[in-house]
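Continuing the batch. This is chain 6 of the set; chains 1 through 5 are on the previous pages. Same settings as before, nothing changed between runs. Recording input and output for traceability.
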Amino acid sequence: MISHRLTPLTESGILAALSVVLGLMALFLPVLGVVAVFLWALPLLVLVVRQGVRFGVAAAVAASAVLSLFAGPLLALRMCVAFAPVGLVLGWGIGRGWSGVRTFLAGLAASVASKLLAFLLLFFLMGIDPWQAQLDGLTQAFSTTLSMYEDMGLDAAAVAQSRGEIEAALTMIGKLAPLVVLIMGLSDTVVLFLLGGRILRRLGSAAPQLPPFGAWRLPIGFLYLFGFSLVGLYWGGTRELPAVYTAALNANMAAMLAGGIQGLSLLSVLLGHFRLGRGVRILIYVFVLFNGLLLQIVAFTGLIDMFFDYRKRFAGRTGGR
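Output for chain 6:
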């Protein structure tokens, strides 16, 4: 734990060094690196809250400079551009005393924008499409694996069927680049907001919190987005308009994601009403998340809840319990 008596320069140096360690883990460790990349901006968040934005920006630049010595300037720049802004913005919002929702949304916007900027940076500097390069790498990896299975004597028909399914899935993923960027931004914003708030409170600093999960209500605009996306999918599919179809597909999935969050929030209210234990709740959430049919039902219920507000009706029928 960092002492409150540390000078700003000393604390900046320590947290910048921690960012370097996390960055090296993210770049060179295959499994822990996935975790480290989400935590890379966490020291920057803490530093901005405790010492100000100037120290946070300076620490990000210093950490990137050190990382460039080990991984090259381009890779270090990409990491800084893609992940530093969300930590800086979250720290700035917390330091200014914003509410939890406002701080989180500002961090989410910064995270998504920075991911897009990192993709554009790679495209203009290297002249390659980073998203397509990732898909080509996955295609090559799956093709090599299936060929190995085929050489080992597996049924050729089964291998061919698996190859077709994988190609269809990768084609679908290729159309969902905007949604993937949104999910990436949402993921690291959630991690940084929750862990950053916990660390700051342990250090004696104030940190906002989001409302209880059962009180979450997303805008009804997601329901309208879902309806318009269905129209776009129909028009794009029947009239052979690939750009319209792709945009509508991403809008549809984004609306379903919002519906899933709202549906799980509604589910938490129902589970709380029946006073189920925390362990039982977690098991139910996991079962829903890993069951495609149930997850779709929860998502559709969440979208409808944006209009009908089942929670208010449920509370009225049970006397407000």
